[in-house]
Amino acid sequence: ICQVCSFDFGSFYGQICQDYIEVHHRVPVSSMGGAYRIDPITDLVPVCSNCHSMMHRKNPPLSVEELKAQLVKPKKIGLD
């Protein structure tokens, strides 16, 4: 489940996307040195594709908290 918007691929798309999620690096990969060791608990955050793309619209990328603060209530898209 996306840690920004709470989107759940499996709930929306069904079995084909069950347990699917993207991972955002809190420390940009481009700024990691060769000796940097990624701690999956503190360095990675699960996000949906849309939120991941929006986080990277800024340089440096927006944090989870920064993007959450910009969320607007979603409009109904008529998929029910």
What this model shows, in words?
The protein has 80 residues and is an alpha+beta fold. It has helices spanning 9-13, 40-43, 49-55, 64-70; strands at 22-25, 44-47. It has a two-stranded antiparallel ribbon. The model has no long low-confidence stretch (mean pLDDT 90).
Give the class from helix and strand content and strand pairing: alpha+beta
Helix content: 25-40%
Order of helices and strands: HEHEHH
Low-confidence runs: none
- CA radius of gyration is 14 Å
Strand content: 5-15%
Compute the number of strand runs.
2
DSSP summary: helix tally: 4
**Lateral arrangement of strands in the main beta sheet:** 1-2
**Gap from first CA to last CA:** 20 Å
Mean pLDDT: 90
List key phrases describing it.
10% strand, 80 residues, two-stranded antiparallel ribbon, 29% helix, alpha+beta, globular
In short:
The protein has 80 residues and is of the alpha+beta class.
Give the helices and strands, then pairings.
Elements: H1 9-13, E1 22-25, H2 40-43, E2 44-47, H3 49-55, H4 64-70
Antiparallel strand pairs: 1-2
